[in-house]
Design goal:
Chain lengths: 256, 264
């Protein structure tokens, strides 16, 4: 078996007394689309932010193509981030900038050079996510939720990253728009030949996007397997989650 | 045992308060140094800087101008009334110009701009934090310190001296207008006295104060906005804390500079 693109070992992170990640071990192969499922507040977002170096883990190792990411700083960290693109849960578009500046932000890094060229490029990327050229000149606040997600997706893929992260890509969208976003994600991941990690608790989305599914529970990877095994995993935790039952081994009490 | 416990409790609380305050000052100082380093090292964003200079400087002119005008006039009236008690009405132009240039111009302009700008900076950065825009910026390989914080710190430090210069002029004019219009002073004599008593040291110290206040008020806004969390309530808290911190920093540094420059 070849070296995985991402190799996570013993990843731990606590916020105060709350141990959110308690020894995550996870491999993601080149070109694979992994979906991480798990209840709200189980640390799925924290996992992604640790990989991106936004949150510093307490312990453990994250290797990208064999290179250790934990502990990188400054220039080295910024270079490592060039491999990643991320679609944030709420879109996280910069509302002070027009859509086309948002889409090309990773390329210009906020500089104002190459206006026309960047505008043309933004229109091109927006077309990939099914948006008309006129959207490029709007402000993010003028867009609907579904359109914001598409623009955010365009921004994440504009620089052609090798690894894409999607944080709850379908949250807040109606089922039809959610399915369109799922299809776009699948299509763009394939087109870029990228490796993808998606975190979600939307099972329809998981089935649509995933090659493989991993479930986080109690700060660890509780179960992982191909998406086809999701329905007959034989694991009561996974069963409960997949079928959305209140009764089962996972207690529904919400932690404070 | 219980008595000792009872006696110790206030001391423990006092110690915790002192340590908390020192930790806060330390965090603010580290934040300030990181911000200054980002401002001094590339990448630089001249367009962001110009934008902030407009927002902080240009749009603060009306409020700063009005404050200076009214305060200058009220000050002249008070000095006149106070001076009458020992037949020193003629000191109005001299005292007005010294009070405005040394103290009221920089302090009032600083406080007014802090009310406008520190809160706006804190609210904007806190909202960006809550909506993950700051995280998004990092993943797009742009350092928020260089892109967001440095331009605000530099713009505010550069613009406040200009605003204070304007405030000083308008403040003196306010005093002049009231004195000539209402108190019967001779206009030319008033301006001549004003010029005679105004020293270049006063102006320099006024502008130094302004630059320091400008840095402080942007720092307070950036610090509370950048470090905020906890949703909409967190944004509100950041905004309030930014204004309160900016006010305290401005008044504290005003005292320090005044004692340092004029007390020696």
């Amino acid at each position: 078996m070849s070296e995985p693109r991402l190799r996570i070992r013993g990843l731990k992170k606590a916020f105060g007394a709350k141990q959110v990640l308690d020894g995550i071990d996870l491999d993601v192969a080149v070109g694979e689309s992994l979906v991480v499922i798990g209840g709200s507040g189980t640390g799925k977002s924290v996992l992604l932010k640790c990989i991106l170096g936004i949150i510093r883990p307490d312990e453990g190792s994250i290797r990208l193509d064999g290179q250790e990411l934990v502990g990188l700083r400054g220039r080295a960290l910024a270079d490592a981030r060039a491999h990643f693109g991320m679609l944030f849960q709420g879109g996280a578009l910069f509302d002070s900038l027009p859509v086309w500046r948002n889409v090309t932000f990773a390329l210009t890094q906020g500089k104002l050079g190459g206006g026309q060229q960047m505008h043309a490029l933004a229109v091109e990327v927006l077309a990939k996510v099914g948006l008309e050229p006129r959207v490029a000149d709007l402000r993010p606040s003028e867009l609907s939720g579904g359109m914001q997600k598409r623009v955010a997706l365009a921004r994440a893929i504009a620089a052609g990253p090798e690894i894409l992260f999607f944080d709850e890509p379908t949250t807040g969208l109606d089922p039809i728009r959610a399915d369109t976003i799922n299809a776009l994600i699948r299509q763009q991941v394939t087109a870029l030949g990228a490796t993808a990690i998606t975190i979600t608790h939307d099972m329809a989305s998981a089935r649509h996007i995933a090659d493989r599914v991993a479930m986080i529970h109690a700060g660890r990877i509780h179960w992982e397997g191909p998406v086809s095994a999701l329905d007959d995993s034989g694991d009561p935790h996974v069963d409960q989650f997949v079928h959305g039952r209140a009764e089962g081994p996972i207690s529904a009490t919400v932690a404070p | 045992m219980a008595v000792a416990d009872f006696l110790l409790r206030p001391l423990i609380a006092l110690g915790a308060f002192a340590l908390g305050m020192l930790a806060g000052i330390g965090r603010l100082a580290i934040f300030a140094l990181t911000g200054v380093r980002a401002a001094l090292t590339p990448p630089w964003y001249p367009a962001r800087l110009l934008e902030q200079m407009g927002l902080i400087g240009w749009f603060s002119l009306p409020v700063v101008g009005l404050t200076a005008l009214f305060t200058g006039a009220a000050l002249a009236q008070q000095i006149y009334v106070g001076g009458q008690r020992f037949s020193a009405e003629s000191t109005v132009p001299a005292v007005t110009v010294i009070a405005i240039v040394r103290e009221l111009g920089p302090v009032l302009a600083g406080l007014m701009v802090a009310g406008r700008v520190s809160s706006a900076i804190a609210a904007e950065l806190a909202t960006m934090r809550v909506t993950e825009q700051l995280d998004a910026m990092v993943t797009l390989r742009t350092d928020p310190w260089s892109y967001l914080i440095a331009p605000r710190l530099v713009a505010s430090t550069l613009m406040l001296p200009i605003l204070v210069l304007v405030a000083n002029i308008i403040g003196v004019l306010g005093g002049y207008a009231l004195s000539v219009g209402r108190l019967g002073f001779n206009g030319a004599a008033y301006l001549a006295t004003t010029r005679r008593y105004l020293e270049s040291d006063d102006i320099v110290s006024s502008l130094v104060k302004a630059a320091v206040f400008g840095f402080c008020l942007a720092l307070a806004g950036c610090y509370h906005g950048f470090r905020s969390g906890g949703g909409a309530a967190g944004v509100g808290r950041a905004t309030t804390n930014a204004v309160v911190s900016a006010f305290i920093l401005i008044l504290l540094f005003n005292l320090a500079i005044t004692v340092l420059v004029f007390g020696a």
